[in-house]
Design brief:
Layout lengths: L19 E2 L4 H26 L4 H29 L1 E4 L3 E6 L5 E6 L3 E7 L2 H5 L2 E8 L6 E7 H17 L6
Antiparallel strand pairs: 1-2, 2-3, 3-4, 5-6, 6-7
Helix pairs in contact: 1-2
Length: 172
C-alpha cells in the first residue's frame, strides 16, 4: 500500500479519496435495509385503507406520499452509496469516504487510533458482509467502513491492530 505524500507545508497527511470500493453485495444489503424501512408503512396504510372506508382518502394519500418518497429511496440510495463509499488503509492512516446525501471524507492517522472493531448484524451476515469501526481520539467520532466482505474485514482489523501497536504515540 502506497503512503500518500505529506503536505509540504505541515508534514501532515493529506485528505484524498480512498482507493477501494466496498463489496458489491453491499448494494443488496442497503436495498434490503431500505425495503424494511419502506414496505411496512406501505402495507399498513394499504390494509387500513381497505378496513377503514371512512378514512380511505387520507390513508391512500399517505400511501401515495410514502410510495413517492420510498420507491426512489429504495431504487437510488443503495446504488448511490456504492458509488460513494470508499476505503483504504496505509501504514500511516485509514481513509474513508461515505454518505449518500451528506458525503464525508475522513483520514485517521495511525497514531490517533484507539480501537478497531468489526460489526456483523443479521442482514450483514445474510450477505456475508461486515463493518469495521475505527475509534480515534477525534471529536468527529469513529470512522466506519461499512459493506466489506467478512474475510476482508477480519484482515483489515488484524492489519490495523498490528500497525497501530507498532506506531508510536498515545492515541490522544
Amino acid at each position: 500500500m502506497a503512503t500518500p505524500p505529506p503536505n509540504p507545508h505541515t508534514g501532515e497527511l493529506r485528505l484524498r479519496p480512498p482507493r477501494h470500493r466496498v463489496e458489491r453485495r453491499a448494494i443488496g444489503w442497503w436495498t434490503t435495509q431500505a425495503l424494511l424501512l419502506v414496505v411496512p408503512p406501505l402495507v399498513a396504510l394499504a390494509v387500513l385503507a381497505v378496513l377503514l372506508p371512512s378514512a380511505r382518502f387520507w390513508l391512500l394519500l399517505g400511501l401515495a406520499a410514502v410510495a413517492v418518497a420510498g420507491i426512489p429511496y429504495v431504487l437510488v440510495m443503495p446504488q448511490w452509496r456504492y458509488r460513494v463509499h470508499r476505503w483504504e488503509t496505509t501504514e500511516d492512516a485509514v481513509y474513508t469516504a461515505a454518505g449518500w446525501l451528506r458525503q464525508e471524507w475522513r483520514v485517521a492517522p495511525m497514531s490517533r487510533i484507539q480501537t478497531v472493531d468489526t460489526v456483523r448484524g443479521p442482514l450483514q451476515q445474510l450477505f456475508n458482509l461486515a463493518s469495521v469501526t475505527v475509534t480515534t481520539a477525534s471529536a468527529a467520532g469513529p470512522l466506519t467502513i461499512a459493506g466489506l466482505d467478512r474475510e476482508v474485514a477480519v484482515a483489515v482489523v488484524e492489519q490495523l491492530t498490528a500497525v497501530t501497536q507498532a506506531t508510536p504515540g498515545d492515541a490522544t
